[in-house]
Amino acid sequence: MAAQPRRGGVSVPDRRSASKPDSSILYRIISSSIFSRGKQAASDAAFVSDKLLRSIGKSAWIAGTTFLILFVPLIIEMDREQQFTDLELQQASLLGAPPAAPARS
Asked: Is the dihedral of CA 49, 51, 54, 60 positive or negative?
């Protein structure tokens, strides 16, 4: 019976017997404690950055929707009020009335 090819992934050479440890440089690097600690640190950093990005995204969503709900209608209303004031001043100047001094706040 012929061996079936594996699907996807990287092919790894077959493991050697436990009585004959592998002495290749790659095996020594991968099995070193420094490599495993570095791999764990990278995994932890990826986890923390993922959580941080998710929380920043949620915060941005909350800030954006709050701005749209609270401040955009206020800005529109203030613009509408300014247009109404400008229209009154224009009508008063067309009728010949002396221009009123702008209200100071």
From this structure: negative
